[in-house]
Amino acid sequence: MNPTFDTLFYDGRCPLCTKEIRTLRRLQRGQLIFANIHEQPEGNRNLPSHENLLRRLHLMTSNGEWVTGLHANVRAWGHTGFGWLFKPLLWPVIYPIARRVYERWADWRYERKYACAFGVEKT
């Protein structure tokens, strides 16, 4: 059976993101590929927009499907021995709360760091 390789797109200019990526690189089992968003050509028709990649975590599965946000995070950590710790975030009782927390954090991080770059006014 061939191993499946997922590609995780991350913000290489975010200190918190790069810290987590360093940890994932160290702990993963060799089936997770890391792609710095800032090293991807803008306008690549195979990728979501640069802005969307920065707004939410994106992971492309080995069969070309996109997984985003909290689901991408859980799937990425599934490539480590600690994936079981993240799976409860997707349980029906926990998921709505975990998703809201993730999305609020992601929106705050994006607005704080990138809103001006894409012509979005900060409020």
Could you explain the architecture of this structure?
- GO terms for molecular function: protein-disulfide reductase activity.
- InterPro entries: DCC1-like, DCC1_Trx.
- This is Thiol-disulfide oxidoreductase.
- The longest helix has 19 residues, at 95-113.
- The chain is α+β, with helices and mostly antiparallel strands and 123 residues long.
- It starts with 5 loop residues before the first strand and ends in a 10-residue tail after the last helix.
- It has five helices and four strands, in the order βαβαββααα.
- It is 41% helix and 13% strand.
Short description:
This is Thiol-disulfide oxidoreductase. By secondary structure, this protein is α+β, with helices and mostly antiparallel strands. The protein has helices at 15-27, 50-55, 69-77, 83-86, 95-113, and strands at residues 6-10, 32-36, 58-60, 66-68.
Describe how the helices and strands are arranged.
Elements (H helix, E strand, L loop, with lengths): L5 E5 L4 H13 L4 E5 L13 H6 L2 E3 L5 E3 H9 L5 H4 L8 H19 L10
Parallel strand pairs: 1-2
Antiparallel strand pairs: 1-3, 3-4
Protein name: Thiol-disulfide oxidoreductase
GO molecular function: protein-disulfide reductase activity
Organism: Marinobacter profundi
